Each structure stands twice: as structure tokens, then as C-alpha cells.
Amino acid sequence: MRQILLITDGCSNVGMSPVIAAAHAKSEGITVNVIGVLDQGDIGELGAAEISEIAKAGGGLSRTAHTRQLSHTVQMMTRKTVVQSIQLAVQKELKQVLGNESIEALPPEKRGEVVRVMDELAETSSLQVALLIDASSSMKPKLAAVEEAIRDLMLSLQARQGRSEIAVFHFPASRHGEDCVLDLGWTECLNGVQSILPKLYMSGTTPTGPALMHVIAYWQQGGSSRSIRHETDGMMGDYVV
């Protein structure tokens, strides 16, 4: 399973639409989830609408959270999107086997077995999370909350039985002409992620769309260590025939 987890406080203002970029990610089999970080008040209607639209176009979820709630929100988003991805894959396969029938059409014992396997797959399937951090100037006061959230995300991923890999990007880049920077390539050594944030220079504009395209290109150009896009294919047949 491949997903982008975008942490931002709102409105993009440079480059292509992040909604279009998220739709492109979805077409590549990459789910885009978005967490909007609030401090005092709210991020405004425009920013909230954009966050929702990015996630919808990317086939993912969106949530807004105050800084003190960010850690819980990040963990919850990751767990929910893993479960959602498994459910969608299983439902797709069930539809091929059962036609237009739903899981509710199965006999109770078969239905229970399908649910059990779905839970097992959510825990054991391989997962790649590209963490994309908005490091524009407006995010600077929220950096401590983002650090705490990422620390808790690492603990959550380490607790899974399946293989979990993470890559970390931030935008905008400190160097002129770059919209996004890779801070850490795919790794299963999750402890090193926390050391990245204190080094970030928080400034500049918010090129969210170009940053999303940068992350997608990283996968397309071989940044992924292996393809895990269709890992659930064929795994439900024995339970429904």
C-alpha cells in the first residue's frame, strides 16, 4: 500500500493545483491523505476547502486538528487509511467473485472469515508512507507539534506486524528553483526520522501541487524499493468460493 501523508496549514499559492496533483497520484495507485494543522482560530474557509478537495481527489481522508491534537490525528489517519485501503481491495475482489452481491450476501460463517482476513491484512500488509511536510513560514509556530506527531507516528508504524517504510519530504526548498526536497529516502529504520525536523528552515511560499508531483515522481523514478501496489490481489478467493 502506498500513501502520501500531507501535513499543512492551508492554502497553496504557487504552481499547479494540488487537487490536480492529488488526482494524478490516485491514478498511479497512491492515496493522498491530508492533515490541516490549526493553531488559534482556524485556517479559513479557503484553506479548509482545499484540504478536503486534495484528499477527495487523492482517494484519501482529510482531517483538521489543533496542534495539541495533532499526534492522535496522525496516528488515527494512518490506521484508518490502511484499513480503508484493505477494504477497497477486498471489496473489489469480492465483486469479481460475487458479481453485484455485497459481503452481506455471504453466509454468516463466510462473512465472519472475510472480516477476520481483512483485519489480518490491515495489520500485516506492507505499507509505504511518504510524509510530506509543509515548511512554509506560517508553519513555523507549529513545528513542535509536528515533531511530536511524527514521533508518535513512528511508534505506531513500528507496532505493526507488516513491513513499514517511510520517506520524508518538505516544501518549499531552501534553494531557489526547487519546490520540494527529499530529506530521507525509503527506510525501515524509523528512529532516524525525528532528527530531520529540527534542521528544517521554515520559510517561503506554499507550492503544494508541485510538491505532490515531486513525491509522485520519486516513486515513478524508482524511489520505491519494490512494488506493493497489488499485494492483496487474489487473497480472498479461498474464503468466498
Characteristic key phrases:
241 residues, alpha/beta, disordered C terminus, globular, Rossmann fold, 6-stranded mixed beta sheet
* SSE order: EHEHEHHEHEEHH
Provide the spatial order of strands within the biggest beta sheet: 3-2-1-4-5-6
How much helicity do the residues have?
40-55%
The profile of the biggest β sheet is:
6 strands, mixed
CATH class: Alpha Beta
Number of strands: 6
| CATH homologous superfamily caption | von Willebrand factor, type A domain
Gyration radius over CA: 18 Å
CATH topology heading: Rossmann fold
* Total tally of structural domains: 1
CATH architecture: 3-Layer(aba) Sandwich
Low-pLDDT parts are: 224-241
- The number of distinct helices, counting runs of at least 4 residues, comes to 7
Strand portion: 15-25%
Give the N-to-C terminal Cα separation. 26 Å
- Oligomerization: single chain
Mean pLDDT, as a whole number?
A: 77
Instruction: Label the overall shape.
Output: globular
